[in-house]
Amino acid sequence: MSNLFALLKADLINTYKLNGYKDPANRKKAIGMSLIALLVIAMSFLYIGGAALIISDILLSMQLMNILLIFAFALPFFALLIMDAYKMPSVLFSFKDYDMLMSLPIKDNTILAAKVLKLMFSGYVWQFLTSFPIFLVYCIKVENLSILTVIIYVILFLVMPLLPMSIGSVVGLALAKISSRMKSKNVIMIIGSFALLILIMGVSFSIQSIINEQALTNAVSSIADIESSFFLFKMYVSAVYGHNIVSLIILMLIFIMPFALFIYLFGKSFKKINSEMMETKASHSLKNVKYQPYSPVVAIFKKELRYYTHCVIYIVNTLFGMVLLFAASVAVLIADFDIESIFAELGQMNLNTSDMKLMAASLIFGYCIMLSTPTAASISLEGKNLWIIKSMPIHPKTIFKGKLGLGLIVTLPIGVISSILIYIGLGLSFIQWLILLGFTISAGFLASVLGLFINILLPKLEFKSPTEVVKQSASVGVTIFGGMFLVIIPMIIFSSFVVTNASIYVLIVTAIYILITISLWQYLITKGVKRFSRL
Amino acid sequence: MLKIENLTKTYANKVKAVDDISFEIEAGDIFGFIGHNGAGKTTTLKCVAGILEFEQGKIFINGKNIKEDPIICKADIAYIPDNPDVYESLTGIQYLNFVADIFKVTKHDRERLTEYYANQLTFSDTLGDIISSYSHGMKQKLVIISALIHSPKLLILDEPFTGLDPQASFTVKEIMKEICAKGGAVFFSTHVLDVAEKICNKIAIIKKGKLVSLGDIHTVMGDKSLEGTFMELAKNE
Fold it and tell me: For chain A, which has fewer Cβ within 10 Å, the N-terminal or C-terminal residue?
């Protein structure tokens, strides 16, 4: 137990940089991070709690407050399912400190337990942020709240993360196992990750649509339908709302048993599985030895592209927006729904259906492109390799161009193909397609330059795994936030003012994007170069 | 070849890693840079290689100021770090081609030099393998080949013998002599004092960022061994 505690303590201090307060050099950074954490908590309570408060009034009037409990359960459950499917492979398999930990006189199970408990801790944080505000609203709004409700909620709060962890582990293990036998292992991991994400999103949306439609349109029968549509919801409501001890026990067994089984089975072959996964097939291949010269910009671009295609987490996080865009474009092309009537309903008094189509397409294209910014992590990802490009006889502008190329190759080909699909699927005019194409290209350039600009301002060169940079770095967060801002603001202006010609409006936004792109690029090749030299 | 004038590098915590050091390395020199861990060796080497910015002093490579003409200066040098951190997702040959592309090495030269140095370092068989599968020593060999592929005039090496097998260590020493014989120069840091004593013609000892001894190796050593000289200097505060 003392080993477990020691491992957990060291890992938590290291992961969450808890020594930051003790180190005078990092104290400011630590205080800043704490303030950001507090802000996230406040925002989450404000946003999720606020939304729950609004919904609770409607639900109260319909006497369906138990639906709020479903939200309190479903939100963290699906969030953790996605998160754990990503995280579990890196937590349990081939983790960075594997060699170091396995060389210590500690039982394999203790190491496994420490890794799992650490992930559970983050599960509790997520639950606290997403579920607790909703439950708080429930407690405030429900009259004569039973203490039993709170106790059962807390019990289930403590065991709930176990099920997403088990599912995530099995999915992660299966993907890793399959991919280790394949030559193109990353392709399998990427396709698997995207498939899982799209599946989970599909399930989430379908559940959301059940709740929305039935709760709002059929107050009487909705609760039974929702409960019967998902067994876990039924059990959860029955336990927390109905204080049904049998439901509580069943639910606890559902949460705990698969986890216990997984830990038991995995614990037995923990070392064997990890050893197998860390094996590299060292078959010397001299046919790969070719000498083909390229220009420095192309050389940098090729280097960036090779890293990109070898880093699953990088691809999944920065290509997902474009995959969604492509999937949506294909859906518009082949789906059997009445697009004309949807847009006719959406049509404003001052805009015709055709204009609405262009505006909607531009919004979705902009949104997906701004989600796809590999450049926001590309300087950070140089990490300990930064010495290579810094010691080379090339101007930082050349490096920036190569990195920009990666951003463009991620967004533009899919963006252009999707615009053609949308042109056919939505029945846009040729001129409208050209405008959408221009918007797509300008947004692609803006997203790439914006990512690079933010990354040079907020680099994170010290990291243990690329995940820290790709998913958790300030640069990526600020870039996505900034990109969203640049898409949403024109849309707010559009919906707030009388705009009579969508084509001209999109052209104006395109022109503004081009201007911002040029300004940011100018910064990069002047002050950005100096900042890069100081890294 | 290399001239350092009053170089001072202070880190964010106000600690002077390098404090007002000056020296010169001429063509044909093998210049050994020795000192304790944290004495300022790597910082100096990184400043010379154009990796670290510095606030005071000047560094000239073949008469060009590294701050004013970094590209021209870097084209003449090759830097080999103490830890061979390279792009793990590339194959060895992809990395060498990448470096050759940046230094604009012709197809003929990159092929000739890669084969020459890869054979010398017994590395030819693994050129097509992914770098992540390399051992520390193999990565070190790769970085050495990448440094030599563009025929640098000044070779800057930080602890070059760490992780190398005896045969590779011998080859690297021979390559260092070869570069100097062709009119180049070598500037390297090391903790292996026996090696420094055998191959260097000039030596500098750095302590807490300041040079405590500098000059021709025989003058620095006097009648002692390099180890004896170093230990004596280390004792004197």
Answer: N
Task: Please indicate whether residue B14 or residue B205 has the higher confidence score (pLDDT).
Answer: B205
Q: Contacts of residue B91 in chain A, CB cutoff 8 Å?
A: 288
Q: So what's the pLDDT on residue B13?
A: 65
Task: Give the tens place of pLDDT for each residue, B219-237.
Answer: 887 778 888 888 887 776 5
Encode burial over B42-62: b for 16+ CB neighbours within 10 A, e otherwise.
Answer: bbbbbbbbbbbebeebebbbb
pTM over 0.90: no
Residue B102 CA to residue A399 CA, distance in Å, equals 10
**Smallest CA–CA distance from B13 into chain A, residue:** A25
Question: In whole angstroms, how far apart are CA A535 and each of A17, A33, A373, B54, B77?
Answer: 21, 21, 21, 12, 20
Residue of B nearest to A308 (CA): B89
Nearest to B129 among A284, A307, A385 (CB): A284
Torsion angle (degrees, nearest 10) of CA A401, A406, A412, A417: 150
A27, A391, A461: best to mutate for the B interface, most B CBs within 10 A: A391
Q: Is the Cβ of A2 closer than 8 Å to some Cβ of chain B?
A: no
Q: What is the predicted ipTM?
A: 0.77
Higher pLDDT, A309 or A18: A309
Could you tell me which of A232, A116, A95, A92 has the C-alpha nearest to residue A174? A92
* Contact pairs from chain A to chain B, CB under 8 Å: 111
